[in-house]
Amino acid sequence: MGKRSGRNQHEGNSLRWSSAFKILFLLIVIAGITLVGIAMAYAVTAISQSPAIDPKNIRSAISETSVVRDKNGDNVEQLVQNEFSEWVPIKRMPDYLLDAAVAIEDQRFYEHHGVDFRRLVSATLRNLQSMDFSQGGSTITMQVAKNLYTSPVKSYARKFQDIYYAFQLESNLSKKQILEAYLNSAAFSKGTKGVEAASKTFFDKDVSDLTLAEAAMIVGITNRPSEYTPFNAVPIEESDDLDTIEFSLVPAESIGAEATERDKELGDALAEKELIDPFEHSQIASGVLVARKAVANPASKKRQELILHKMNSLGMIDESTMKEAINEDIHLDLGSHTTKGISSYYVDAVKDEVLDILKEKGYKKDEAQKILYNGGLVIDTPLDLNVQKILEEKVSQNSFFPGRHTNKKGIIQPQVGITIMDHHTGEVVAIVGGRGIGGNNILNRAKNPRQPGSSIKPIGPYLALLNKGGTAGDVYRDLPRPGGWPKNSTGYQGWATVRNLIRNSSNVGAYLVGKGLAPGEDEAAQMMIDNLEKMQISSLVLPDDQKKYPNIDTMKYNDVNLASLTLGGMTVGISPLEMAGAFSTFPNGGKFIKPTFIDKITDKSGKVIYENPKEEVEITSPQNAYIMTSMLESVVKSGTGTYANFSGMHIAGKTGTTNRKRDSWFVGFTPYYTGAVWIGNDDNTPLWDYSRMAANLWRSIMRDVHKDLDDKNFDEPEDGLYKKYIPVSGYTEIFAEGTSPKGLKNLYRNVPPKPKEEDKDKDKDKDKDKDKDKQNGNSNSQSSKGGNKGGQQGGNNGN
């Protein structure tokens, strides 16, 4: 009994253990099934919330930095906002670059179908053990999914989405296409995405020119970009040779540093050596940027060597090739995203115009911004770098800006705004919006309106007169007016033709011409406004413009008056850009083309999404345009614009100054280009030499621009013109057929009457008396002599 009892007890214990094991196993199975169920439910939820993708059109999902090109198709600037990315086809990537990526990121890339389950399970178990997500287990395909469709946030939901998208990618794309997408979308530190951007950023070369050593270093960055970046930025020491070190300009805020006096001194030294442009110099001076030396990062080198060893172990390279690459001296050569030596004013204007075009196509503001910077646009412009560099060089010379000083904001004064355009096409070939500073959407004075003064006269009263049937030979009374307004600063001519009025920039004449356009002043003003609006002068202030100008009482202060439209005393003014556009009407045969900075925009797929139509609007007849051009030639040859004249080129144009010497203008053209130059102080204080400054600068710029161009006449209409001699004035005038000069008889009022015979006898008696006085030594003769001298001086001063 005892033995049996013991056996039963043993069997009972075994049964209990067996039951417990079964229960435990069952619980584990249930827990496993539950976990799998939960995981599956979690996965289904994550996948169901995943937006649909178009894997066959993968390139559309890859951000690409847009590029601005000049008239020759050369890159001027990559529009880098937050990151620099440039697409490169896989056929331009070296084979060893592709091998390096596979070796370090996904050794079984060519074997799996999007997910390497062995690697994924191993990484998941390690993550569960450590209770973090440090082990990724992602394949290259999954990384493409993360880069393009999900996010860098680490979570199991994102991992399920990556897997889901990876299967879609593998089902629709070849391995070659997936690898191409990966290498164009991965982050490579320092704000770069894609191997082409990385190659240009770190080695200033195309990816196809990378050595094996350089390729391995670049590929190694993607695992931890901030840790494996090829260089670190450190302070520049006084012993460093600025001509030989590699340096970069970094935002002071991004490195938690405040600009010091040493940083500003470095900025001055770099600018003096022309290693940075004026805008970069101003950014350093204001403490926004600091210059730092680029030194090689040891961690990056260590990572590179790991990759080379892996490539060797996988049979991708032999040992001697590996050692050669490891021993290669890596030379950092930091590339630039912009063309050196020019300010960013032109590209700023290009960006503004692109955004306007995209908005017109129906994109919202934020959408347009994203496309502009990350849409991979190729923006072809008419920028002429030779002309642009002439502008940059001229505005850097203080000799053109007498009275130089610095305002309270530390900005050099006087300032300048210049536009040069091809009037045959409306294309702006060069622009500068300031000096001593470089743009970046700060105040662009070439696009900023200022009062135009007398430079408005050709596009204001005189254009309206010709359009109404008036002529360059019409006569007006150029003498002081009752009440003393307006006054001439260039003297008075008496009765004078329109040609002579504009040649001498008569304020009285311009006012009378404008006033005579219509019976009422408002009607006359409207005639001029109509022309200005056709030439797209956007800064007119009209009584109903309260929404446009909320800070101006537009009912009280507006431009519907003769002072604004005939003398240029406008409420807001006109920009140099729009002045150039308006004047370009005359050398273009009376047709206006809106000034443009863009010829064509192409998207990343090569499709042209915009081409500038360069539409012409007829403002006046070709005959009137030629007559106006001829009158403006007189201004330059013998009038107020002689300081703009230079030999070997036909030139026409008009000066402009404003009250209290605040603005100096010259707007003129040759048979090739139209140019507008404005000079003034930002705070509207008086200029030191306002009458000549703009004309002097215009002449110096245009003389260099036209250095290799042949002189030729302005285009003259084949018919519709005739010539007629103007008596008294003594020159032959040009007229449009069907018109004739008015008021010519008034010119005779300027001719002094011939003396009568009895007056001649009296003069002879006076001469005899003077001779007697001289012989007698009469002291009165000395008094009379002095009186005559004084009279002559007074007369000369009056002329």
List keywords for this structure.
single chain, 26 helices, 799 residues, alpha+beta
Measure the end-to-end span: 153 Å
Strand % is: 5-15%
The total strand number stands at 23
Label the structural class: alpha+beta
Mean pLDDT: 86
Fraction in helix: 40-55%
Stretches where pLDDT is under 50 for at least 5 consecutive residues are: 758-799
**If you compute it from the alpha carbons, what radius of gyration comes out, rounded to the nearest whole angstrom?**
39 Å
* Biggest sheet overview: 5 strands, mixed
The neighbouring-strand order within the major sheet is 2-1-8-16-17
Task: Indicate the overall shape.
Answer: elongated
Number of distinct helices:
26
Brief rundown of the structure:
The protein is of the alpha+beta class and 799 residues long.
Describe this structure in words.
The chain is α+β, with helices and mostly antiparallel strands. Helix content is 42%, strand content 13%. The protein has 26 helices and 23 strands. Strands 2-1-8-16-17 form a five-stranded mixed sheet, with helices on one face. Strands 12-11-21-20-19 form a five-stranded antiparallel sheet, sandwiched between helices. Strand 11 and strand 12 form a beta hairpin. The longest helix is centred in the first third of the chain and has 47 residues. The N and C termini lie far apart (153 Å).
Summarize the helices and strands and which ones pair or pack.
Elements: H1 2-48, E1 67-69, E2 75-78, E3 84-85, H2 95-105, H3 117-130, H4 140-148, H5 156-172, H6 175-185, E4 192-193, H7 195-203, H8 212-219, H9 225-228, E5 231-235, E6 247-251, H10 261-272, H11 278-285, E7 289-296, H12 298-313, H13 319-327, H14 345-360, H15 365-374, E8 378-380, H16 385-395, E9 405-406, E10 412-413, E11 415-422, E12 427-432, H17 458-468, E13 475-478, E14 494-497, H18 498-503, H19 507-515, H20 521-534, H21 562-567, H22 576-583, E15 591-593, E16 600-602, E17 608-611, E18 616-618, H23 622-638, E19 652-657, E20 663-669, E21 674-680, H24 693-705, E22 721-726, E23 731-736, H25 757-776, H26 779-798
Parallel strand pairs: 1-8, 3-4
Antiparallel strand pairs: 1-2, 5-7, 6-7, 8-16, 9-10, 11-12, 11-21, 13-14, 15-18, 16-17, 19-20, 20-21, 22-23
Helix pairs in contact: 1-5, 2-8, 2-12, 4-5, 4-6, 7-8, 8-12, 10-11, 12-13, 14-15, 16-24, 17-19, 17-20
